[in-house]
Write a structure and sequence with these properties.
The protein contains 11 helices and 7 strands. The chain is α+β, with helices and mostly antiparallel strands and about 350 residues long. Helix 7 packs antiparallel against helix 8.
Length: about 350
């Protein structure tokens, strides 16, 4: 068994997906080809098969986190377009919605259409994708999502900014846009307030879970080659608990999404809980794997060393204590309290 089975009833060829992702060898070009194929059959969140979607993402991440990091936003973009009732043009998609101090992408309505100008940070594979959903500030003060053709001459990468050792092949540096035509997707502020925003965030957590499974399997393989002592057995037990905890919240969340129980503020709180639990499990397994196997695999095993570096960068999409504080504020506002 190579696929990651969380228990969905839908029949997906997870073993086949795993083999394809592993064969890509961390190549973003191969990952983009796979993304196009997966987009043809992967279910969308909230369709009744959310767990099958997350199984797919977790399986890809177990095989190769670079592949998962490419496929996940493509599937997310297709889901966003479907949620907005917009047909998705062919090609590979990204979602560029992050903000950072000192950068601003502005949307203006000019001469019968929208154009985007400014700098957008964190544009993963912005020079390789066909199109992207990009959020920009609008004159009325809010933000709005736009579909953009990345082949336009006004889209220019900011060279030399991506020095990451983890997810090194997924260049996520900023893009400068100069009066680039854009088609609006949803109304002002719709992107952040729609139910699918939380669902997509939990899909990312499924990728984190898959990366942790990949580490766990490496520890297990080592234990089977060299009989573990009591400390080695403790490491395996700790990993099993961490994975069970993460899988349990993903399964429960998928059920909630498909049963209409993850909408609005409740959906946002659920996503915050799920992402926090999965990140804590992944961080624990990163630590346990290092303790269990020592430096050898980190310096001699290319696949393992890359997986560790990739996962460390990937899970930083969770904002650690700041996200926990946001969840705490949301919980404090509830009346009656949730517990």
């Amino acid at each position: 068994m190579t696929g990651v089975f969380l228990g969905a009833a839908d029949a997906l060829d997870l073993d086949g997906l795993y083999r394809e992702a592993h064969a890509a060898g961390g190549s973003p070009d191969e990952a983009l080809v796979l993304a196009g194929r997966v987009g043809l059959f992967a279910p969308q969140p909230g369709s009744g098969s959310t767990l099958a979607l997350w199984e797919c993402l977790a399986t890809l991440a177990t095989a190769d986190l670079t592949v998962a990091r490419v496929v996940e936003p493509h599937l997310d973009a297709l889901a966003i377009l479907a949620e907005a009732g917009v047909p998705a043009p062919e090609g590979t998609w990204g979602v560029f919605a992050a903000e950072s101090p000192g950068t601003r992408l502005q949307a203006e309505y000019d001469d019968g259409g929208w154009v985007l100008s400014g700098r957008k940070p964190w544009c993963s594979l912005g020079t390789r994708l066909d199109r992207a959903l990009i959020t920009a500030h609008v004159p009325t003060g809010g933000r709005r999502a736009f579909a953009v053709d990345l082949s336009h001459d006004g889209v220019r990468p900011v060279a030399g900014t991506w020095v990451s050792r983890g997810l090194a092949a997924v260049d996520s540096g900023p893009l400068d846009l100069l009066r680039v035509p854009a088609e609006p997707v949803g109304e002002e502020n719709w992107y952040l307030t729609r139910d699918g925003f939380a669902w997509g965030g939990m899909g990312v957590a499924a990728c984190w879970y898959g990366g942790a499974v990949g580490l766990a399997r490496r520890v297990m393989a080592t234990a089977r080659v060299r009989e573990p002592d009591q400390i080695g057995l403790m490491h395996l037990g700790t990993i099993d608990v961490a994975l069970h905890r993460a899988a349990a919240v993903l399964k429960d969340a998928a059920r909630a999404v498909d049963h209409g129980e993850a909408k609005g503020k409740e959906g946002a709180r659920l996503a915050a809980r799920v992402r926090s639990v999965v990140v804590q499990s992944a961080e624990e397994i990163l630590s346990v794997a290092a303790h269990a196997m020592g430096p050898g695999p980190l310096v001699y095993d290319e696949e393992h060393a890359r997986r560790v570096a990739d996962l460390q960068v990937y899970i930083r999409q969770h904002h650690a204590e700041r996200d926990s504080a946001s969840l705490g504020a949301a919980v404090l506002s509830l009346d009656p309290p949730p517990w």
